[in-house]
Design goal:
By secondary structure, the protein is mainly α. It has helices at residues 3-7, 40-52, 69-75. The protein is elongated and about 55 Å long.
């Protein structure tokens, strides 16, 4: 068996509560190579959600105001 074959195997990841871990995006069994996801596709979907701001870590701080476009041009 080559390394390429083992990378595509679905290897259930053990869980404390029993049963294999599931992908947080599609609920398929997680694959060790992409953990905690089942595939590169689901990992990319999750990353895209972070980049778009869909996921956010709650804080007690007020959001910083972005400078107006006119102010940014004056700095140049």
């Amino acid at each position: 068996m080559s390394n390429d074959d083992s990378d595509s195997r679905v290897v259930p990841m053990p869980r404390k509560g029993g049963g294999p871990r599931k992908c947080p995006i599609c609920q398929k069994p997680a694959v060790h190579r992409f953990r905690p996801f089942c595939s590169q596709r689901c990992a990319d979907i999750d990353l895209g959600r972070w980049v778009k701001g869909i996921y956010a870590i709650p804080t007690n701080e007020a959001p910083e105001a972005e400078p107006a476009a006119e102010d940014a041009e004056e700095d140049l």
